[in-house]
Amino acid sequence: MIRKAEKEDVPAIVHMLANDTLGKLREAYRDPLPDTYYQAFGNIFNDPNQELVVIENEESQVIGTLQLSFIQYLTYQGGIRAQIEAVRVHENFRGKGIGKELFKWAISKSEEKGAHVVQLTTDKKRPDALAFYKSLGFTDSHEGMKLHFV
Fold this sequence. Notes:
Elements: E1 2-4, H1 10-18, H2 23-26, H3 35-45, E2 50-56, E3 62-72, H4 75-78, E4 80-89, H5 98-113, E5 117-120, H6 127-135
Parallel strand pairs: 4-5
Antiparallel strand pairs: 1-2, 2-3, 3-4
């Protein structure tokens, strides 16, 4: 079941974010979690242009997550761009269609919101993720760039 994330889900979400090669370098998963995660969750939860969701299995265990952001802009005649971020599936549940189910939900939600495009970025060090996104119909049509401050 896919549902809006609640404050109680934050530790499970951060655990999934931290549980990969790149996430280990940037996340601070520990008990208790740093307050910054809960502050960010509050901002996301209260923003009508953000959808942070989790997917649960039959035992109500959080096994996946993603964040969907809606960006209003003037181009495309005042269009809305949907941005998918922080997609993670718990390591014990990968390869079972969970990620595909999350993406189907995000694409459907984007259409409902009137977005004209759904976009995402993926690190070049994640070739499996790139192949997965391509299998869902995403194309690598643009070159993304970042300027990190930390």
